[in-house]
Amino acid sequence: MIQSTRPAQYGFAERWLPRLVLAPSFLLSLVFIYGFVVWNGYLSFTASSLLPRYEWVGFHQYARLFANDRWWVAVFNLFKFGVLFIGISMLVGIFLAILLDQKIRFEGFIRTVYLYPMALSFIVTGTAWKWMLNPGLGLEKLMHDWGWTSFTFDWLVNPDMSIYTVVIAAIWQSSGFVMALFLAGLRGIDDSIIKAAQIDGATLPRIYWKIILPAMRPVFFSTLMILAHIAIKSFDLVVALTGGGPGFSSDVPATYMYAMAFTRGEMGLGSASAMMMLLSVSAVIVPYLYSELRRGSR
Amino acid sequence: MANNNKWARILVYAVLIYAVIYYLLPLYVMITTSVKTTEEIRTGNLLSLPMHITLDAWRKAWGTACTGVQCTGLSLYFWNSVRMVFPAVIISTTMGAINGYILSKWKFYGSEIVFAMLMYGLYIPFQVLLLPMAQTEGYLGIAGTTPGLIFVHVVCGIASTTLFFRNYYVGIPDELINAARLDGAGFWRIFFRVVLPMSLPIVMVTFIWQFTQIWNDFLFGLVFSSGDSQPITVGLNNMANTSTSVKEYNVDMAGAIIAALPTIFVYVVAGKYFVRGLAAGAVKG
Amino acid sequence: MKTLRMTLCAAALMTVACAANAAEVEVLHWWTSGGEAKAAGELKKMLETKGDKWKDFAVAGGAGDNAMTALKTRVVSGNPPSAAQVKGPAIQEWGDQGVLANIDDVANKNNWNKVLPAVVQNTMKYQGHYVAAPVNVHRVNWLWVNPELLKKANAKVPTTWDEFFKTADALQKAGIQPVAYGGQPWQDSTVFEDVVLGVGGADFFKKAFVQLDQATLKGATMVKALETYKKIKPYTDKNAAGRDWNLATAMVINGKAGMQFMGDWAKGEFLAAGKVPGKDFLCVPAPGTAKSYTFNIDSFIFFKLKNADGAKGQNDLAETLVSPEFQQVFNLNKGSIPVRLDADMAKFDDCGKESAKDFATDNKSGTLVPSFAHGMAAHSATQGAIFDVVSQFWNDDSMTAQQAAAKLAAAAKVN
User: Fold this and answer.
1) Considering only alpha carbons, which residue of chain B is nearest residue A114?
2) Domain span holding position A88
3) Can you cite a GO biological process for this protein (chain B) (predicted)?
4) Which of A191, B59, B69, B216 has the most CB atoms in a 10 Å sphere around its CB?
């Protein structure tokens, strides 16, 4: 690759202009994102309750966090949710993208339908979902009305299953987006490769499996990153659908942190949980960014 | 072979249509419920079509539903959101475009670090920012106002817009830039004359993304606005959680659709640019 | 100069509202449902006759959870509303932050020390000064009964827990759902607190929830209370999870369920549906709690503001809140009783009258206890930790009462 900048050819202004123009964004994120993260990290070592209070207590809040049942429920829920949500959204998305790539009529319409859930906030669709999943009002009642009286679907109100209703709704919301990303990737692949393989006698499924999907590795990765990002931050979804309930059975770290820091005067504990979230995110993101940048600079 | 192929195609269509139904189901429930009467909702079932279509619920949700002592429906909140979303989207998209341009075509020592920093910012749980941000807005004197809310959305949106543009611009051949430089074009001239005209697809992607993110945001709207600047998501939440003994599902659903209309509109109208824009480079890792 | 303007304005008030100097009063509240919103509307009207401008800051949902988040950020940003709906020990927590305004002037002018019961006065004061104005007293330990259904099942209104389960059995046999239940953490704890009071009595209740005594929380009586609480579960339906309290009340109103444990705000729902107390529905103290009273006092705290006009609005608001006229109108709408000792109860229904009578008696006998579930007894952190245990115990059928009691004791130690 050609080195993209040759500052030597330019005057002083042209050399400093990019830095100057980038500076506001840099400063904004330095102060408002990183500065606040550091501040939050500091709070996690204080006895802050209702509002910030700068009284140092060491690792006390972390000790409390690790001794807290509800925190561990939240962590395991995120784990279950993350694996299922990312896995299934990916499968459904890829599958639909491949089907849609078969020169389908009304493709534009179908694509829009698959994509629109992404446009809606869960504050909006949560009510409809809550209603459909409620045993007394929604699907279960419908099946009973239609004569299938032994049908039960009570996940929403069952503490062991409530987190899976969040998975269902999340897949509904995001799988269309995954489809769009993969469809875009598929469109980027040269048709002549497929033609050539077909002439060699390869079947279509085989072509997809052996040639096309491997070529989509980068799409796969960026989709994974986006989905992981959605999973870790999922907040609206849980609040609107289950409110973390029944009890706190469908809590996730984001709702836990919010509940502690804001509705319950436990700012120190909330900050500690936020720091734990950040640390686990870093464990995934930092290696990714590192490899990204190394690749970019090669 | 041909026959076999025909069956395969029928199967493909069947699966696709099945998926269409799955995706549309919640919307269907919302729409049909919103035009039913409360009586019909109680007696009928979820999927039944409305017997008489009435727009009363829509009228109520838009203009007369009460939250607290205010009976303005959602209209007030709707316009608040409109006033907030356009400046926020335009500012964050502009900043993202320029940042992306610099980070891909005007790299300098340390620019990669800036990029990494911005990217990492994407993964920070925004709840962490609420209190210090509130304090800062207090100092700046924009707490609880629409400009204050716009500011928060811009700060939190820069990372994703920059990522979109940077990944897109990486795909523009450096030769183009170099040729323009040899012609004596400077930093801004190259941006406006060469890069920007090629940016329509990615501008669309970013616009759609930011518009839906900001329009749908609830958390920031809740804490960074006050009585007369609250956005529609907060208004909807107030309305849906405000219930007397008979819960008016039809009004809630009508309100929910009103809140969703702008984003649905954007997706339907600009959805094809979205896929095209993604194809044009946003998905390159 | 300023005094002159104020005097002029006061003079102008006699004839017409003084618009030029109208103080804006921004009030954060979550009174958004039916009767409550009507009550808030009355408040707005009364303030406007005093020449103040009401700026509504309503945040609904989650029993004030969202409102608290909004309030915290507003205070941190140095731009607090004039007043906010905050009650119980939380008033002390806000006082500790040094952000509350002193309203002793209004209180003295209006004789609050005479007209308010001591227990209310104490709640409203921070370090001996008034920082909050009370609006009402709710009794939490009520059982709402649909008498028609009980008659159908040939069951009688329960006064003890044994009777309660007999009645529930009878209802169930008759094919009627015995208990309307809403499975949200605060509702779980509302019912649990009734059980604790009924099983253990007022002294036990205070030891457990006010003093947070470890031995009491772990002890045999608490285990028995937990067991009794869990025994209610088979009499509820499985759709109870996440149900709003007013929808549960609607089940009793519409004859879908026999009984509901809920504070007296439920009465507003019955009245709004056109039901008559004593005939269409009964209000009785929760089983075993006839001789005690769990109270929940709604109040507004006032914040220090930067401009003097704001203080005028705050004083007007505080004065209005405690005035006999407002107390009467508001509480008739909301189902609670006035906080004033000299309140005229003539217009109130039987439930209200009984509540007022019991409040006075229990005040004397020392069986007046602060509602734990409604944030009158403990700090929000402790309250939340105990909520977690109660809800977990209710939902998790594998947890034993002993385990739950141990967890309760651990939760009480959070601070």
Assistant:
1) B23
2) 65-297
3) transmembrane transport
4) B216
